[in-house]
Amino acid sequence: MGPRLWSAEYRRTPRLFLIARALSAAAGIATVSVTYRVGVSLFDRTTGLVAALFLAIAALHVRESHFALTDVSATCLLMASFLRIVRYWRSGFRRDALLAAVLAGLAASTKYNAGIVTLPLFWAIASRNRSDGWTDRARLMMSCAVVTVSAFAVGTPYALLDASHRAAALREVGEHLRRGHMALAGYAWQIHLTSSLRYGVGLPMLVAGLGGMGLLLFRSGREATLFLLCPVAYFALIGAGQSAFARYILPTIPFLCLGGALLVTEVARTLSRWLRRPAAAPTLAAIVAALIAAPSLWSAIETNRLLARDDNRVIAAAWLRERFPRGASLYQTGSIYGHLQMRQGVRSAVSRGADRCDTCP
């Protein structure tokens, strides 16, 4: 919703906005819990705890959990699907693969690009137990594909009922991602690495996350493939164009947190062995994790402080209403995102590419 009308609409239906924001916040909290469970299932309890800590204070994840957008919810469902994939990888139970498919379909229904979590699902089915014949594995893959599409259809029925409009919308979104939103700043790969992730999780956590991914790749190729397939494929997809909103990279952050947690745990265990105090490993892991997490925690705190303040556009609009008579006209130019929010009874008309707003105090 555009900034000119947002405040007036909010005054009429505040509960709708609060419900949507509460759902986003709940999804953010749930993602922390799911990330912990992935860490425990794939690695160990200490790694899961550190990963949960990292995600709980990751500045970008904290910030986006404030807002009524789909990114945090899609990330939550993606990670819930990945948790079931990991459990299938460990147990081989078909029900885990089918539940992963259900959650993948719901994730794609929430935001299309979250459906990329099906890649590690199909890879896990194909490579986990090669003693099973290709017929059995192909049958399970087909079942998971049908379940994924069915779950997607339940969440977004008109995507199938009105396929022509869906295809046109997908082409439009793809073109938008390719061309960029406003000024061309280069490919999103570079922007997300140097800005979205650099400041979204802090440089220490970003370096630790990439280091942990490299460590996993060196230590176990098959397990690394399972873990890296989703974030690497997602990063390649979302970075191929020139549209680089920071929230677009959100689904990779839990994986970075898990990678960073793995590196922290291994460093702590190495230090404890060097000090000949194996029991000190959890304490050392907590100390190292706190040092790595500190910059992101500070950013999250400062973001919350900023969000608690009145927006300058609202303050300026109030100042104008107090000093100008009823019916006075205001001409605003430039991007609409910088326009003053004249809350009460805004009327707007386009004139020479800019907005003309009549205030009605």
Task: Please characterize this protein's 3D structure.
With 361 residues, the protein is mostly helical. Helix 6 (94-110) packs parallel to helix 8 (134-155) and helix 7 (118-127) packs antiparallel against helix 13. A 3-stranded antiparallel beta sheet has the order 1-3-2, with no helix packed on it. The chain has 2 domains: 3-161 and 184-307, no CATH class; 312-358, no CATH class. It contains 16 helices and 3 strands. It is globular, with a radius of gyration of 23 Å. The model is unreliable at 1-8 and 345-361 (pLDDT under 50).
Kindly list the characteristics that best describe this protein.
361 residues; mainly alpha; 3-stranded antiparallel sheet; 3 strands; 71% helix; disordered N terminus; disordered C terminus
The end-to-end distance, rounded to whole angstroms, is 21 Å
**Beta fraction:** under 5%
**Order of SSEs:** HHHHHHHHHHHHHHHHEEE
Q: Write down the overall geometry.
A: globular
* Category from helices, strands and their pairing: mainly alpha
- Radius of gyration, in Å, reads 23 Å
Low-confidence stretches: 1-8, 345-361
In total, how many beta strands?
A: 3
Average pLDDT taken over every residue: 85
> Which bin fits the share of residues in helices?
over 70%
- Per DSSP, the total helix count is 16
Q: Provide the domain count.
A: 2
- Biggest beta sheet attributes: 3 strands, antiparallel
Strand adjacency order, main sheet: 1-3-2
